[in-house]
């Protein structure tokens, strides 16, 4: 196989400031060992997130210059709406400034205390917005999705039998909606098969439960279906995406992922009465329904980006470049979530540092060491992000998995950058036995990983 080259030429560059290990050590201590609190200028390779970090194309920048900043009814809005209709197919579209705003509006309208919202795996903001309403977020991913080393072509699938049992357990009236996250971010960026989407949709329709897609990485998921699922090899990614959305009643999306934009999101539904309630809340907190908290130029950038994300040359490069990182580190024995995901590689921190118990935060230790070693910023997806702290006793409960996500921004880094990341991971791997864990010294009640501060664990 030939080398997979970037299907673009570089037209502008942003300098990276090199740092020394001593400088990085000082920065870590100032930030309370939380890389969210670092200045971006002190990061060499930023793999904290793929959200809003993409490089926009020349066509997107041209679209930015066409942006119509009219408060109501701008041409940018109609171009955005048309692109969403062409790909997603839902009748009613509400723009939002990012995905969590769409989640907040959706759950504020549909959820209340005592409700249960199933998903394959809820991500952090989804879970937080559900729990803020008093409802419960329940994860129903298949068994293979809970085992980092297990290989399965669609580890993001929902366990349909568990969904049926949940409906029997709590009753249909307590489930205001069901969600599927594609790809499954918290579970290693793993895709969901079309057969699974279809099966979940059938169960939901049998019980009159709306099915919503968390569509942040819909294009990557569509391409995995093309690669791995029988009957889809000759289908275009856009047609696969259209079929996927046809089984749902609506979606939320952060356009900062597969919209290839730096800001923006959307909420879509086929339910006119629900859309009316959502629109009223949108006006209250986001803005007029034809801009939803975004500038017209951003709406235009997303309208172009949604189609570019479905370009097959781009998707070949995108999936292969992520796999390249995963294959190179796993070949050296580094434990990762297998197979490699679409937007990120997930290191198995529990297996990487078996000497560090879950409540001493092995994922956070690995995040710290990657920055200390090479200035790489990653994110913990384990007990820091998804563990539970009892408000009365202060007792901590660990998360099911201790992962570290290396999220690759779209169209930003070249193969030499990724080779640098591989080298750094292997250097930490070589000295893994000497690394100690961490403990919280400050934390917020919700989404604590953004602002928490830590210190090295003693003993």
Q: Within the largest sheet, what's the order of strands?
A: 2-8-7-6-5
Strand content: 5-15%
Q: Portion of residues in helices?
A: 25-40%
Counted by DSSP, the helix tally is 16
Give the averaged pLDDT, no decimals: 95
Shape: globular
Please give the CATH class of the largest domain.
Alpha Beta
Examine the coordinates and then state which fold CATH places here, giving the name of the CATH topology of the largest domain: Aspartate Aminotransferase, domain 2
**What is the CA–CA distance across the termini?**
49 Å
Name of the CATH homologous superfamily of the largest domain:
Type I PLP-dependent aspartate aminotransferase-like (Major domain)
User: Nearest-angstrom radius of gyration?
Assistant: 21 Å
| Extended strand count | 16
Count of the domains? 2
pLDDT < 50 stretches:
none
Structural class of the helix and strand makeup? alpha/beta
Overview of the structural elements:
- The chain is an alpha/beta fold.
- It folds into 2 domains: 21-50 and 312-456, Aspartate Aminotransferase, domain 1; 58-308, 3-Layer(aba) Sandwich (Aspartate Aminotransferase, domain 2).
- Helices cover 40% and strands 13% of the residues.
- It contains 16 helices and 16 strands.
- The strands form 6 sheets. It has a 5-stranded mixed beta sheet with strand order 2-8-7-6-5, with helices on both faces. Strands 9-14-11 form a 3-stranded antiparallel beta sheet.
């Amino acid at each position: 196989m030939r080398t997979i080259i970037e299907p673009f030429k570089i037209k502008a560059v942003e300098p990276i400031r090199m740092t020394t290990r001593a400088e990085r050590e000082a920065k870590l201590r100032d930030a309370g060992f939380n890389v969210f609190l670092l200045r971006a200028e002190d990061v060499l390779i930023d793999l904290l997130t793929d959200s809003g970090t993409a490089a926009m194309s020349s066509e997107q920048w041209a679209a930015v210059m066409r942006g119509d900043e009219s408060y109501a009814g701008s041409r940018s809005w109609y171009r955005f709406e048309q692109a969403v209709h062409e790909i997603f197919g839902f009748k009613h579209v509400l723009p939002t400034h990012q995905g969590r705003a769409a989640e907040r509006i959706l759950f504020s309208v549909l959820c209340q205390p005592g409700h249960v919202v199933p998903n394959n795996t809820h991500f952090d903001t989804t879970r937080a917005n559900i729990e803020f309403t008093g409802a419960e977020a329940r994860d129903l991913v298949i068994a293979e999705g809970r085992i980092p080393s297990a290989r399965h072509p669609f580890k993001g699938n929902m366990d349909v039998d568990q969904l049926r049992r949940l409906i029997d357990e709590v009753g249909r009236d307590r489930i205001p909606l069901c969600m599927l996250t594609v790809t499954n971010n918290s579970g290693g960026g793993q895709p969901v098969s079309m057969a699974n989407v279809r099966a979940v949709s059938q169960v939901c329709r049998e019980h009159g439960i709306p099915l919503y897609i968390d569509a942040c990485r819909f294009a990557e998921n569509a391409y995995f279906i093309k690669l791995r699922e029988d009957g889809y090899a000759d289908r275009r990614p856009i047609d696969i995406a259209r079929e996927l959305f046809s089984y749902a009643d609506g979606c939320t999306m952060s356009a900062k992922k597969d919209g290839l934009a730096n800001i923006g999101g959307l909420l879509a539904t086929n339910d006119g009465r629900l859309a009316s309630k959502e629109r009223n809340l949108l006006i209250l907190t986001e803005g007029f329904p034809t801009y939803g908290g975004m500038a017209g130029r951003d709406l235009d950038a997303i309208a172009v980006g949604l189609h570019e994300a479905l370009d097959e040359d781009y998707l070949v490069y995108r999936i292969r470049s992520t796999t390249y990182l995963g294959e190179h580190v796993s070949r050296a024995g580094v434990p990762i979530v297998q197979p490699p995901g679409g937007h990120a590689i997930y290191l198995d921190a529990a297996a990487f540092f078996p000497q560090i118990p879950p409540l001493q935060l092995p994922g956070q230790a690995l995040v710290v060491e990657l920055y200390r070693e090479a200035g790489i910023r990653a994110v913990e997806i384990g007990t820091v992000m998804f563990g539970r702290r009892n408000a009365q006793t202060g007792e901590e409960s660990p998360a099911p998995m201790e992962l570290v996500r290396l999220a690759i921004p779209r169209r930003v880094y070249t193969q030499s950058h990724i080779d640098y990341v591989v080298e750094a991971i292997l250097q930490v791997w070589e000295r893994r036995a000497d690394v100690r864990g961490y403990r919280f010294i400050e934390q917020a009640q919700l989404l604590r990983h953004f602002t928490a501060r830590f210190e090295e664990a003693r003993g």
